């Protein structure tokens, strides 16, 4: 059974940092591009970042460039997102996905809540 479990979300002040983690089971992430997406009140579900199977290629949506860093550990079958200088507009539910079609709930986990407030 394919499963993705996100964790690490929390309430932080603007300018704060968080590191999100995603543990995959039921499949080996090694051969998959992996993604982070988020559901925010203002923009709905949007792509945040992606990483190629051996981490050679990484991509970020413009609003998080320079602040977020995606990484993966193919041995541990995990995906991470390090977030720095968080802003109020970063608040939302963050999902990891094994597909660019993260709109399909079957391709993503249950999510982890990130709140940014003073």
Query: H/E order of the elements?
Result: EEEEEEEEEE
In the predicted model, the low-confidence regions spanning at least 5 consecutive residues are none
Count every beta strand, where a strand is a DSSP E run of 2 or more residues. 10
Give the amount of beta strand, in percent: over 45%
Could you give the distance between the termini? 40 Å
Radius of gyration: 13 Å
The outline comes out as globular
Compute the number of helices: 0
Which strands sit side by side, in order, in the main sheet?
Answer: 2-10-9-4-5-6
Mean pLDDT: 95
Return the structural class.
mainly beta
State the helicity in percent bands: under 10%
Largest sheet: 6 strands, mixed
Task: Report what the structure shows.
With 118 residues, the protein is mostly beta strands. It is built from no helices and 10 strands. Strand 4 (34-40) and strand 5 form a beta hairpin. The protein is globular, with a radius of gyration of 13 Å. The termini are far apart.
Essential attributes:
118 residues; 47% strand; six-stranded mixed beta sheet
What's the structural blueprint in terms of helices and strands?
Blueprint: E1 3-7, E2 11-12, E3 18-25, E4 34-40, E5 44-51, E6 58-60, E7 68-73, E8 78-83, E9 92-97, E10 112-116
Parallel strand pairs: 2-10
Antiparallel strand pairs: 1-3, 3-8, 4-5, 4-9, 5-6, 7-8, 9-10
């Amino acid at each position: 059974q394919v499963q993705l479990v996100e964790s690490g979300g929390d309430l932080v002040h603007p300018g704060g940092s968080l590191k999100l983690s995603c543990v995959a089971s039921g499949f080996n992430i090694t051969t998959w591009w992996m993604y982070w997406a988020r559901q925010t009140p203002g923009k709905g579900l949007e792509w945040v970042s992606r990483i190629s199977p051996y981490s050679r290629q990484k991509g970020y949506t413009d609003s998080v460039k320079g602040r977020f860093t995606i990484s993966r550990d193919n041995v541990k079958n995990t995906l991470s997102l390090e977030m720095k200088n968080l802003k109020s507009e970063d608040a939302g539910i963050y999902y990891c996905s094994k597909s660019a079609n993260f709109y399909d709930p079957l391709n993503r986990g249950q999510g982890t809540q990130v709140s940014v407030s003073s």
